[in-house]
Amino acid sequence: MISLLSKNPNKSKKSGENSQLTVLSDLNFDQILDRICLEWDSELRKMYESFPSSKEDEDYRKDIYQDFKKDDVYEIMSGHYSLIRERREYSARKEDAYELIQKQTWYLREIHTYVSSLELMHDKLGNSSCSSEGLKELSAFLDGYLSDENFRNMSNIINALWKELSDFHVILTYEKGRFTLTNGVTEGAYDKFLSECFPEEHHTMTNPFAGTEYFSDLENEIIKLFQRKNHSFFKKLEKFCKDYPEVFSEQISVFESEIPYYLAFAKFQRSMKEHGFDMCTASKSDDTLSASGLYDLALALTNMDNGKETVPNELFMDKGESFFVLTGPNQGGKTTYARSLGQLIYFNKMGLDVPACSSSVPYYTNLWTHFSVEESIESGRGKLMDELERLKPIMHESQEGAFIVINELFTTAANYDAIEMGRRVLDYLTGIKCRGIYVTHLGELSKNSKGVVSLIACVDENNVQTFKIERNTPAEATYINRQVLKYHLTYEQLKERFS
């Protein structure tokens, strides 16, 4: 079995989908996936809800996606998927039809589109610039599938039937209350003919075989005449439907269901580029995590719609560094930065391009997020207990080598307790070789911790947020001064107020 999503589909297992759904929610992926999946089937969204099961599968997907980004491969796959949609429409019309002759002709259209689309894609792929293992395996499979004797026989029959049906042209004559059906082509339009002969009726018709599922009385009579004049064709069509009741390959069905995973994202990426947002292929790295022009994709979509600017940021985590502790003023871009970092890891794990101008990303076994949420009334445990409960699956030995995004943990605890618990969380996660980012108002967490790097959300000389994130030690006084000015609590203001 060949899959475009897994190098070894028979061995691969999906990673934990429940944890993945939490990640998607915390990183605002609903907005992103709504845009990516806008014009696609509902099944596409599910493909983004679980990570590949191994580094091998991540690399396998990344190579395939590089092919899909190429203009010629993108056009080949876009054209093929258009024919898939056309074929599905024919299948639906076949199911809706009541008359056997309609069912048979819709089936003829469906199978002819199936055969011709595969042959066309095979020819074009063979002359394309694709270089990935997945698409090369697909091309090799098509070599064997399309050259198989049974397929060739079916293809010859379906092409002959299609040509015969396409060559049918009839002239309908109405004279002295009598219809006459003859072969040939005329300049007249069918709708005009009906309106002239039967002006009191409302008449529309495109094709007796391709119209609605119901035949009018007139159409029924036309079909009967047509069948009597072309008896041989309909006998051959009936035989074909009996001989080939099910022709679709399971392997082709798997491949065709996976095309949108790459095609939808490639189309989305092209759209983002048109609006001035870069996305890049993250290069492989053993230890260094870096990005230039990193941005929150969900925020970029919102800003794009509202005509606002999105501020990009830089990222660098060197060998020996494990966790960022990000502090700074409220509304300074801390959560946005954490989300952009989580999205970087997510898209790279999915084998897709990432929201940045350039990037280097090591392999991480998993991606976890823990964002502060409102206290749950249903659980009755209180916010702190809820947070600890949600931390359980993250604080587990099986998460070794994962990337963790934590946003405002232990906010209801006293400062001393929150610092102590926060340090224990960081010590444990770094101990099992996890990396990540911890957004907090507690600057003390970045002090005296091995492998922990302090980041701050910057303000300008007027204490206005710049939404830029930089390496620096926490400067609590700056944030305090900003709050003092905001709420008119300077010494002079207080002195004046109490005098």
Taking the alpha carbons of the first and last residues, their distance comes to 84 Å
CATH superfamily of the largest domain: P-loop containing nucleotide triphosphate hydrolases
Contiguous helical run count: 18
The description of the largest β-sheet is: 6 strands, mixed
The topology string of helices and strands comes to HHHHHHHHEEHHHHEEHEEHEEHEHEEEHH
Spatial order of strands in the largest sheet: 8-9-10-6-11-12
Number of separate strands: 12
What is the number of domains?
3
What is the name of the CATH architecture of the largest domain?
Answer: 3-Layer(aba) Sandwich
Mean pLDDT level: 86
Give start-end ranges of low-pLDDT stretches: 375-380
Strand content: 5-15%
Spatial extent as radius of gyration: 32 Å
What's the level 1 CATH class of the largest domain? Alpha Beta
The shape is: elongated
Query: What structural category characterises the helix and strand content?
Result: alpha/beta
> CATH fold name of the largest domain, please?
Rossmann fold
* Helix percent band: 40-55%
What does this structure look like?
About 1% of the residues have low confidence. The strands form three sheets. A six-stranded mixed sheet has the order 8-9-10-6-11-12, with helices on both faces. A four-stranded mixed sheet has the order 3-7-4-5, with helices on one face. The protein has a two-stranded antiparallel ribbon with strand order 1-2. 51% of the residues lie in helices and 13% in strands. It is elongated, with a radius of gyration of 32 Å. It has three domains: 159 residues; 46 residues, no CATH class; 223 residues, 3-Layer(aba) Sandwich (Rossmann fold). With 499 residues, the protein is of the alpha/beta class. The protein contains 18 helices and twelve strands.
